[in-house]
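Every protein is a chain of amino acids, and every chain bends into a shape of its own. The fold becomes a row of whole numbers, each drawn from a learned catalogue of backbone shapes. The protein below has been through that process, and both of its lines are reproduced in full.
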Amino acid sequence: MTQTVAAPPAAVPVRAWVVLALGLLAQAAGTLLVSAPVYLIPLLHLQLGLPLAAVGALTAAPTLGMVLTLVLWGAAADRFGERWVIAGGLALTTAAAAAAAITAAATDALVPLGIALFFGGAASASTNAASGRVVVGWFPRHRRGLAMGVRQMSQPLGVAAAAVTVPPLASAAQTSGVFVAISALLAVLTAACAIGIRNPPRPQISRAAPAPAGTGTAATDTAAAGSAARPAAPPNPYRTSAFLARIHAVSVLLVVPQFALATFGMVWLIAGLGWTPAAAGLLMGASQFVGALGRIVVGALSDRVGDRVRVLRRVAVAGVIVMVLLALIALAHGAIPAGFAVGGVVLVLATVVSVADNGLAYTSVAEAAGSAWAGRALGVQNTGQFIAASAVGPGIGAAIALLGYPLVFGLIALAPLIAIPLIPREDRHG
């Protein structure tokens, strides 16, 4: 009797880990540039006296640039490969950061600086669209969840880097000095990515098998053979299944609690629970770091169980639970012993859960789209999330002013609740 022994999982090449590290650093550096204007607000508004509305518009400029170019960068990665899209995009981001430094040194007007940052955000979108694609291409399926979880740490790490470095740099060297330092970092990473990143091998899909020789004229036999040798254009995954559209919709819904807590969590700690600004800032920073680690854990779990969407569904259920719990704490913290501390703990838990879905959804999109469509699909994924995120600030802010934190936190729980039935029942692979 013959017994079949399963082959061991394929080993992950060293090159894959190099690409992962470079992709992580590339997107973190792009996030640093995009996040820098947020941490310039104390200098521009409080010290220089510029209007808060104008400074707020400046912070939105790089995000707007990203929204408009994510899909285009994804299509470029599909067409030309990831290596030069990432390196070329970083080179353009470096130029935009240098332009921001020059304009900030030459004038106090915000419009020229905003234009430079708009183009910086548009260029930095290259790393969002292509770095995840190249990671999926290099890592085998049984390691992709872990790898994408690591890669998804880039955003919180970039934000953390901006929070730590931009305020002291702005105090010491003004706005221009901030962008000089960022452009220098981007230049170094541009060279590193151009040297270190390699495009993953792409599978070739052939058309129908060649017709048997001698079935027609020599000309028709030759034409048939040539047609058979050409690779076929892979089918559009959006036309063959609703999987991608459903994951996009789920991600848009799940980004609502993520950005709501990131934007208003610190304000709630201070205004609602009586925390000092310094303590609230430390707690929010800690929650971002723990959330980044949580993405790795959830990604590794999806590798272990072999099912991304099942884990994603559990994350959505957990999202409903923690938002309802946060609403109850916001309503009754005064009646709970040490309610201010309990509220802080629940906020950290809710923040960690709210960011846990990113890597799972991103990996599912890349795997379902296949290598020929992954760049465009990931561009659509990011675009939808950024558009939703841009609406969270004014929308949730107005709702809090009208209804208060407890009711709004409860309403936010509806987003993951609606997402649960939209999550597909099983993974799909392109």
Remarks:
- The chain has two domains: 14-196, 238-422.
- The chain has 17 helices and no strands.
